[in-house]
Design brief:
By secondary structure, this protein is an alpha/beta fold. The protein has 14 helices and 13 strands. The strands form 3 sheets. A 7-stranded mixed β-sheet has the order 2-8-7-6-5-3-4, with helices on both faces. A 4-stranded antiparallel β-sheet has the order 9-10-13-12, covered by helices on one side. It has a two-stranded parallel sheet with strand order 1-11. The longest helix has 25 residues. The model has no long low-confidence stretch (mean pLDDT about 95).
Length: about 375
């Protein structure tokens, strides 16, 4: 008799579906017989500039040591982060991307007797890691596509261990200003940890927006997670980090896997932190690209959610799945977000000007063809 191996998995994992990332260029090329060089990928919120020259140089040099294990403590990168953000090195936890850190946090502080609070339309990893560890996920209805911080604070109970807050939020691009976030933190009991996911914080340039790291001294129950995958242009190398109190960081580092960030990633991330010109250029391209995309949506009469990230969610109606497929046929990859409960939207990452134009032209045609097909 065959063994039902799914039944051997823990209950939370049995009901999970694998996380679906944006479609890779190579996969679309294979499926439709397209030239990979002619495909535009605007699906995964990657930096359209490509990697920093400083990061590339550091990565090439680090390859010479690929036969050796990485520095498991990530000393050089922690030192660079400490210098840039004014935190002690013992407040930093490194991860294989920020997703890795989010999972470690959940495993350290929540279990089957716990509740974890997050918002509707928030990053898919929050409910995934919650369910995987057997905790109860409490999804709080959104307000205007973003976090309803008052409702999230009210959802905290005696069983709540973690609250996930993304600022800016993915996939909607909504953001809370500093006053609102601090008022929310003031309402959360100190025994409940707030995980502030700032994966897109480098897109924010105004003083009205919060810098989570600067709030750590006031809120000892705060954990701030960031990544090198977006504005810093290192998505393929998978480097993320959390800053927190030394006590929380000590707990996280007990569960964090040894050597979870490789030598090349450590070197590239350390180098890119000093490439301020690259970061500034990334911001300029992003701000111009957001304007370009939104102006195009306005011309087509398409509603969209104003975004503070490097992407924008545009509403194309009940034909969104058909529009997505039609865009693929044009060699343009965007991100369907029906899995987030947004079946009428597509999320579009900001590309270079010519890539944004290519998408907008393809979208105009896709809307027509999807409508005819419906």
């Amino acid at each position: 008799m065959a063994v039902d191996y799914q039944s051997l998995a823990v209950k939370g994992v049995q009901a999970l579906s694998p996380y679906q990332p944006g479609k890779p260029i190579e996969e679309l090329a294979r499926e439709l017989g397209l030239n990979p060089a002619e495909i535009v990928k605007l699906a995964s919120n990657e930096n359209p500039l490509g990697p920093s020259d400083k990061a590339m140089a550091a990565a090439r040099k680090a390859l010479e040591e690929m036969c050796l294990y990485p520095d498991g403590n990530g000393f050089d990168l922690k030192q660079a982060l400490s210098k840039r953000f004014g935190v002690d090195m013992n407040q930093i936890t490194l991860g294989n991307g920020s997703n890795d850190v989010l999972e470690v946090i959940a495993r350290c502080f929540a279990d089957s007797d716990s509740e974890v609070v997050f918002s509707q339309y928030a990053f898919a990893v929050y409910p995934i890691v919650t369910q995987a560890i057997g905790a109860k996920g409490v999804s709080v209805p959104a307000r205007d596509w973003g976090h309803d911080l008052d409702a999230m604070a009210a959802a905290v109970t005696d069983r709540t261990k973690l609250v996930f807050v993304a600022n800016p939020n993915n996939p909607t691009g909504t953001v809370h200003e500093a006053d609102a976030l601090e008022a929310f933190l003031d309402r959360i009991p100190e025994r409940v940890l707030v995980v502030l996911d700032e994966a897109y914080c480098e897109c924010l340039t105004g003083d009205e927006y919060p810098d989570g790291i600067k709030l750590l001294a006031r809120y000892p129950n705060l954990i701030v997670c960031r990544t090198f995958s977006k504005a810093w242009g290192l998505a393929a190398l998978r480097v993320g980090y959390a800053t927190s109190s030394p006590e929380i960081a000590d707990i996280l580092n007990r569960v964090r896997q040894p050597f979870n960030v490789d030598t090349v990633a450590l070197a590239a991330a350390t180098a890119v932190l000093e490439d301020e010109a690259y970061l500034n250029r990334s911001r300029e391209v992003n701000e111009a690209g957001l304007r370009q995309l939104c102006e195009g949506f306005d011309r087509m009469g398409l509603p969209y959610i104003p975004s503070a990230g490097n992407f924008v969610a545009v509403e194309v109606g009940e034909q969104a799945a058909g529009v997505y497929q039609a865009l693929l046929a044009h060699g343009v990859i965007v991100r369907p977000v029906a899995g987030y409960g947004m079946p009428c939207h597509l999320r579009v990452s900001v590309g270079l000007p010519e890539e944004n134009d290519r998408f907008l032209d393809a979208l105009a045609e896709a809307l027509v063809s999807a409508g005819e097909g419906g």
